[in-house]
Design brief:
The protein has about 180 residues and is an alpha/beta fold. Helix content is about 40%, strand content about 20%. The longest helix is centred in the C-terminal third of the chain and has 19 residues, at about 155-170.
Length: about 180
């Protein structure tokens, strides 16, 4: 993202592993310690903030990375100005958060039910947060991941064409 002129954290929830399938990715994520993941994301955000001269940090995440970005925006509102989540969600209280959000959801996602997405949007709405939820028709979880069997180039391109201006608007550019 730095080639676009802004600073973002992109959590790698597989910790560098490259699962061969969705089932393998689920297995890898299921074995990870949630406290370790949370600590890794918070420490990464702190380091990014320390090394960045911009002062505004965004998070761009896919699946669990998107969920952790949403989580981080509540835990560290002083650091996170923007979150772009691709098929990630959170069922938490967003009290204290101040970031702006753009959430890209698949039309058919076996990991995020319609009720869960509605609950997340309502919870964020209770805090009067600036949230844009974009549903991508005809897509499944993983639609923006070129290596996923669910990849859809048109939907991925559309999502990025929305995400980049959003990040520029919230974060500005440094180049």
């Amino acid at each position: 993202m730095s080639d676009e002129g802004f600073t973002v954290l992109a959590p790698d929830m597989a910790l560098g592993e490259k699962p061969d399938s969705e089932a393998e990715a689920e297995r890898v994520l299921g074995q990870l310690d949630p406290n370790r993941l949370a600590s890794l994301v918070v420490n990464s955000a702190d380091l990014l903030d320390e090394k960045s001269s911009v002062g505004r940090t965004g998070v761009v995440g896919f699946g669990m990375g998107g969920s952790m970005g949403l989580w981080l925006s509540v835990r560290r509102p002083d650091l996170v100005s923007a979150v772009v989540s691709f098929y990630g969600s959170q069922a938490i209280d967003f009290a204290g958060a101040s970031a702006r959000y753009q959430i890209h959801l698949a039309a058919d996602d076996r990991f995020i039910s319609e009720d869960e997405a509605t609950f997340m949007q309502a919870t964020m709405g209770l805090e009067s947060l600036d949230v844009e939820i974009v549903r991508h028709p005809g897509t499944q979880h993983g639609f923006a991941d070129e290596e996923s069997v669910s990849y859809q180039a048109t939907a991925a391109s559309r999502a990025w064409s929305q995400a980049l201006p959003f990040l520029r608007d919230v974060l500005g550019t440094w180049c």
